[in-house]
Fold this protein.
Amino acid sequence: MIEVVMLLQSCYLFKGLSEQQLRCTSEISKEMQIKKGQWLFHEGKPADQIFCLKQGAVELITEIDDGFELPIKILRSKGSCFGIASLVAPYLYSLSARCAEDGSVLAIKQADLERLISQDHEMGCILMSNMSRDLLERLKEARQELKIHFKTLFKFART
Amino acid sequence: MIEVVMLLQSCYLFKGLSEQQLRCTSEISKEMQIKKGQWLFHEGKPADQIFCLKQGAVELITEIDDGFELPIKILRSKGSCFGIASLVAPYLYSLSARCAEDGSVLAIKQADLERLISQDHEMGCILMSNMSRDLLERLKEARQELKIHFKTLFKFART
């Protein structure tokens, strides 16, 4: 239990929660072994669980129409969190997640976390605020990449 | 006052707030006239206000290194909200906003809204949750654009 609380504490999503709030979250967390090549979820499918990496590595991927995969990120750090689309309407995963190295994750059911949030609005406010921060950061990264692509296109167009 | 409440109600950020919560928000909102060409804020600068469009049009822009502007969005709908980076650490605007047509906006100081949120965690939870939904949507749009650019690059590379 203490180990789970410490793992949750190292995850950006749960930063700022009290010990009591972390304990409640640990009670709804379930450890799961993952195997290399195993899909944890698929883009566009109903998002009903959020994950926190304990060991191993997980790739986040989006698919380009013709079946070509565009890698978005590879998570290796303990406490990395993924599947947060399960906390945001319309509750559909926005990326696919595949295990890149054997390991383990904590899985938290969206319904269980929503129940905690509805009972403790302060906790909800902290989680949602942490999530907004992360999403804004990722949006800035995506825009930065877009800028690089624009520049590359200009170069191609000029030559 | 009722007019301001109705305008706030039409903004995605304030969706789901109670009448009382909307009234409190209207009390910290200030109407401001805007003139075509006027900058409301600049990318990378401290974000201390959030805006809600009442009339006119506002462009959201990012700058590519060499001074070339990349337009991100043009807001024309009453109730469109912008400057939400003022509610997310590190509190720096992630885009620039320039008035594209004369009109008016509601301006809400970040410090005033933060005070309301700290007194009413339920309200905070609703605002942050609405913001996360919007940010995730925008992130998906940015990724979609990235996919299109990748495809264009492939085409260039093949020819």
Observations:
- Residues 2-158 of chain B form a domain with the Jelly Rolls fold (CATH 2.60.120.10).
- Chain B touches chain A through 36 residues (CB under 8 Å).
- The mean pLDDT of chain B is 92.
- Strands of chain B lie at 29-34, 39-41, 49-64, 68-75, 81-82, 96-109.
